[in-house]
Write a structure and sequence with these properties.
Strand content: under 5%
Number of strands: 2
Distance between the termini: 42 Å
Shape: elongated
Number of helices: 8
Largest sheet: 2 strands, antiparallel
Length: 226
């Protein structure tokens, strides 16, 4: 494992095993995230920007849904009458159920639009968010697997104009393993190193998932019961 070699623990079977325990699921999760999230990352499904996604939602999903929901109102369902060539009732869709699913789909699209508007206002494209989360998760993983390894920014290299050292090299190696891309990540690594030196209380985490569940009348996930 190249990461174990960079860390200097390639001959330590226990350390290698701990690295695998924390890094394999981390890599699997963020490859999944990249594969389903439009961003500028090479392995993303598309390069659509936040603005492009908003335009697509409006024209391809929200506007058609508003028309379709109105068209399927009970007062209009007689327009779908098949008489005199009626079919077996089992072949007919349950239009009440269809309407409920369309309502949920509209809420989902509105939820996505709200999220996109929020991140666009903050100038946080998803590629930047993914990078931040991967670096933060990598730092946490190394802390669990190699507790004696101290987070360090590294030494400035005038030639590369970046910071090099065992710790930043490890973070970059993990990042490349997940994304397939070489990036310096100096600012993100510095943020995480500074946070470990001077920790601040975490902010309450806002969950768009809980917001969406509330919109469709379900309790937050932490409160949900079987």
């Amino acid at each position: 494992m190249r990461i174990a070699e960079i860390a200097g623990v390639a001959n330590d079977a226990d350390a290698v095993a701990r690295l695998k325990v924390v890094l394999v699921p981390l890599g699997r999760e963020y490859r999944r995230v990249i594969s389903i999230t439009p961003s500028e990352l090479d392995r993303s499904p598309s390069k659509d920007s936040l603005s492009q996604r908003l335009e697509w939602l409006d024209t391809q999903v929200l506007n058609p849904l508003m028309k379709l929901n109105a068209a399927l109102h009970p007062d209009n369902r007689s327009m779908l009458s098949l008489w005199p060539q009626e079919v077996n009732p089992d072949l007919m869709p349950d239009l009440d159920e269809v309407a409920r699913h369309l309502d949920h789909l509209q809420l989902l699209a509105q939820h996505v639009a709200l999220m996109l508007v929020t991140y666009r206002r903050l100038d946080l494209p998803h590629g930047a968010l993914i990078r931040h989360h991967i670096v933060a998760a990598s730092v946490d993983a190394l802390e669990r697997a190699l507790p004696d390894l101290k987070p360090r920014r590294g030494t400035y290299d005038r030639e590369t104009k970046g910071f090099n050292g065992v710790y930043p090299d490890l973070i970059r190696a993990i990042y490349k393993e997940i994304t397939g891309e070489d990036e310096q990540l100096d600012r993100l690594i510095k943020e995480q190193v500074d946070e470990r030196r001077n920790p601040t209380p975490p902010d309450p985490q806002f969950s768009y998932s809980d917001m969406l569940r509330g919109l469709i009348g379900l309790p937050p996930e932490d409160d949900a019961t079987d």
